[in-house]
Design goal:
By secondary structure, the chain is mainly alpha-helical. It has 8 helices and no strands. The protein is globular and about 50 Å long.
Length: 181
């Protein structure tokens, strides 16, 4: 199930009974949090269709996914807490990542958003904070689900925030050149 509101139907009675509303402190991910809270509040299961009528992508320079968020740690902490509630409600639902890994992954990705105005030293300070946290480091090396997870795992094992910054900065530059050609 996607974390977006479009393509879904909600029962007003469930929303009102559970007191669910959008978290206005969140600058992103509030729709995902709403959906997770809604699913946790449901007394019955939900229906999900595997049929997709269409799928398209659009390269939008002003996309929210390219925006830098000052409060991304708070947003993903709220989303992870909602995921844990869903895990309690639905026995077959499983969170595939530790909380600290999810937050660190999104914070690091956020540092390379097009609208991020932090300089290299500021990015290094944030990366260093996550690399020095033992629980985050452990989670980064345990759950490897993708190539990006593998890259982050190796960089966290090397424990060099300058190298991580160089790799991600270079990846951003390469990505921009590919899009231009």
């Amino acid at each position: 199930m996607t974390p977006y509101l479009h393509g879904k139907v909600f029962r007003r009675s469930v929303i009102e009974k559970a007191g669910i509303s959008f978290n206005e402190k969140m600058s992103m991910g509030e729709d995902s949090l709403f959906i997770k809270q809604y699913l946790s509040a449901m007394k019955q299961g939900f229906v999900q269709s595997e049929d997709v009528a269409y799928f398209y992508t659009r390269d939008n320079e002003n996309s929210l996914s390219r925006k830098y968020y000052d409060n991304i740690e708070y947003c993903y902490s709220e989303i992870y807490d909602a995921l844990e509630e869903m895990e309690k409600q639905y026995p077959n639902f499983q969170v595939n990542s530790g909380k600290k890994k999810m937050i660190a992954t999104m914070v690091i990705q956020n540092l390379y958003a097009d609208s991020c105005n932090l300089n290299r030293r500021q990015r290094i300070a944030i990366i260093s904070r996550y690399m020095s946290d033992l629980e985050t480091k452990q989670q980064m090396t345990e759950y490897v689900l993708s190539r990006m997870d593998m890259i982050r795992k190796v960089l966290f094992q090397i424990n060099n925030p300058w190298l991580l910054d160089a790799v991600f900065s270079m990846g951003k530059k390469v990505s921009k050149k590919i899009k231009k050609s």
